[in-house]
Design goal:
Layout (H helix, E strand, L loop, with lengths): L6 H18 L2 E6 L5 H11 L3 E4 L3 H15 L5 H4 L6 E6 L3 H9 L3 E3 L11 E3 L2 E2 L7 H6 L4 E4 L2 E4 L3 E4 L7 H10 L4 E3 L2 E7 L2 E3 L8 H22 L7 H19 L3
Helix pairs in contact: 1-3
InterPro entries: Ribosomal_protein_uL10, Ribosomal_uL10, Ribosomal_uL10-like_insert, Ribosomal_uL10-like_insert_sf, Ribosomal_uL10-like_sf
Function: Ribosomal protein P0 is the functional equivalent of E.coli protein L10.
Pfam family, one: Ribosomal_L10
């Protein structure tokens, strides 16, 4: 028979686990876990097994563990993580490529029905076509101002209808209609909202930058430095080629004007 651990013992075990992860890993993905079920979380853990570990827990407990770890080891590089622990979030410690890990996590989204009271994460559009419902169900469509007609003994939606807008709460009528149509409009999974690496925190959008994007942004920056240098007549490496060319043009213009070779 397994011995049931006390709450204090559970906290101590959690603290040891988190501290061992902080010792071993330098890269962490902060993931929002709203509407993610335990089975879905198990699938994500299984998919990431090998070079990544998913850790869930109360934000206050994680903050305390990080603070204790920093006081004990003198390593305060993980302190920025504490400010990111807001809402229902979890931590993914990884040694793999951050972009690849995020893409792996995104594979485990599952469809979900539109439950009453949920805030819609996306627009919900009901497509036109035959619904398969009998004419007695037309009241649902009339309440929601959805144009329909009876075709071969079933209700047919005539035009696409934006049933729910992103950010709106799902009403009982919308929820019932979508359930009858068999539409599961929402999908949920771990959503990466912040990335931590070696003491730095940045947005997950940074992971989408390619080498070409970086070169383009660098070239834009060099161009701005060169323009500012030329305007101020202040020499910099970025402006030097332009200054030499402009100087050569001025000398050439004088030589041409004075017939001096």
């Amino acid at each position: 028979m397994a011995i049931k651990r006390t709450k204090a013992e559970k906290k101590q075990a959690y603290d040891r686990k988190l501290c061992s992860l902080l010792d071993e890993y330098t890269k962490v993905l902060v993931a929002l876990a709203d509407n993610v079920g335990s089975k879905q979380l198990q699938d994500i853990r299984r998919g990431l097994r090998g070079d990544s570990v998913v850790l869930m827990g109360k934000n206050t407990l994680i903050r305390r563990c990080i603070k204790v770890y920093a006081d004990r080891t003198g390593n305060k590089s993980f302190d920025p993580l504490m400010d990111l622990l807001v809402g229902n979030v979890g931590l993914i410690f990884t040694k793999g490529d951050l972009k690849e890990v995020r893409e792996e996590v995104a594979k485990y989204k599952v469809g979900a029905p539109a439950r009453v009271g949920l805030v819609a994460p996306v627009d919900v559009v009901v497509p036109p076509g035959n619904t398969g419902l009998d004419p007695s169900q037309t009241s649902f469509f009339q309440v929601l101002n959805i144009p329909t007609k009876i075709n071969k003994g079933t209700v047919e939606i005539i035009t696409p209808v934006e049933l729910i807008k992103k950010g709106d709460k799902v009403g009982s009528s919308e929820s019932a209609l979508l359930a009858k149509l068999g539409i599961r409009p929402f999908s949920y999974g771990l959503q990466i909202i912040n990335v931590y690496e070696d003491g730095s925190v940045f947005s997950p959008e940074v992971l989408d930058l390619t080498e070409e994007d970086l070169i383009e942004k660098f070239a834009t920056g060099v161009s701005m430095v060169a323009s500012l240098s030329l305007a101020l007549s202040y020499p910099t490496l970025a402006a030097a080629p332009h200054m030499f060319i402009n100087g050569y043009k001025n000398v050439l213009a004088v030589a041409v004007e004075t017939d001096y070779s």
